Amino acid sequence: MSPGGDRVRLEARVAEKSFRTASGQSAPVIADLSFALEEGETGALIGPSGCGKSTLLRILAGLDRNFEGSVHIPTHGRVGMVFQEPRLLPWRSVEDNVRLAAPDASEAEVAALFAALGLSEHRTHFPGELSIGLARRAALARAFAVRPTLLLLDEPFVSLDAPLARQLQRDLARLVESRSMITVLVTHDVDEAIALADRIYVLSARPAHVVGEIRVKSSRAAMSADEAKAVAARIEALREAG
Amino acid sequence: MTTRLLSLVALVCLWQIAAHFANPRLLPGPMAVLTTMRSEAASGALFAALGVTLARVAAAFLLAMAAGSAIGYAMGRNALFDRAADPWVIVLLNLPALVIIVLAYIWVGLNEAAAIGAVALNKLPVTVVTIREGVRALDARLDEMARVFGFSPLKRLAHVVAPQLAPYFAAATRAGLSLVWKIVLVVELMGRPNGVGFEINTAFQLFDVPLLLAYALPFTAIMLIIETLAVQPFERHVSRWRPRAA
Q1: Do B159 and A89 make contact, defined as CB atoms within 8 angstroms?
Q2: Does the pTM of the predicted model rise above 0.80?
Q3: Residues on chain A touching B144 (C-beta within 8 angstroms)
Q4: Fold of B48-238
Q5: Cβ-based contacts of B150 with chain A (< 8 Å)
Q6: CATH number of the domain bearing residue A38
Q7: Is residue A23 part of a domain?
Q8: Do residues A60 and A155 both lie within one domain?
Q9: Within 13 A of B222's CA, how many CA atoms are on the CB side?
């Protein structure tokens, strides 16, 4: 049991995770990395690209069990995940993609999600007919439709232009606020981390470990620009140090 | 479509012209073949032969597709099985059809099981190789997505794996069908007392070219119709999600 008693908690402790290189050597990707999140919290993992953030997310998702350490995820939990690429089934419509992942979702729920993400007109479209922004929205809708207790987001807005990314961040923030789940967001974008997270974990370069944790005020929406700047400055300082 | 039709008409005209100059015993004209066809149809012999041969084509085809898909899938998924079974596939792929047929008749006997088995065995390695290629090309990222979202094995097969394999399955179907119907005639010619292949053998013994064509052409036409009306629409259906160029 987690020390928090009956509270739902995510506890991750990765002592070591290595990959074999082509020459047969073992390259450590993650070393002594641990963090924990409570129900309803959003944690952002921020770090340089190639530092092992996505590897960590794959471990949390249960896709990679070949590591030393332990991951305690909410029991009986459903996992919703948004990958770096939308990873929709190209041969199924947007609606079918969502319903295949979430067969228990009611029509009202699905309709509300599509409305919230601006996808109502695209239900019957195939993913190949969508712009990348819309495809990312569809991937978000799929992750939310499963009513996850653990939501994993792997740079969900990478490669989108800035205004669209901000818009999607706002949509995502609204959806995250409306649910009581644990969200883990992997990003290299400081503003994105500040906009969405309750706790920000700054990671070092390879092998990744946590160099610092920053708590963001719970009412993110009310945060002033100066406060946001102060948080960004602290993140920068930690990154320099790491 | 019109071009294809015109091309076909041109072929028949060419045949008519060639027949005009050739010995009618060696190359009868289209009308002579049609007359023979009509009399064979009237006696019921033509339909009986076509029915028997089509049943053999269907049985051998389904057998080879089912077994070949299963083996190809397993080889694509499991590297050890792939290495172990690959030499067998290569041997089978390069064994002449005639050798397989003769051995099947010698070992199993001159019966239906040997005939259908020999045809299926000829087609099997082609299916294995095609499906294995498709399995190797499966998108691992979609596999991960299905695992994270807890797709059941059946759901994964129907919605993630099968749509990716469908083009390969369609290719195996098309290549397989044309291979099977050609080999079935050889099997019938060598060791069966009925079917189109047997009738062609009879025509050969009698040097009766109109009889030979009266059986060969309707059979070829039926296989072409199956390909156009069943295989091609299936291919179009499974690739309907691909965005078409405007």
Answers
A1: yes
A2: no
A3: 58, 61, 63, 83, 87
A4: MetI-like fold (1.10.3720)
A5: 78-79
A6: 3.40.50.300
A7: yes
A8: yes
A9: 18
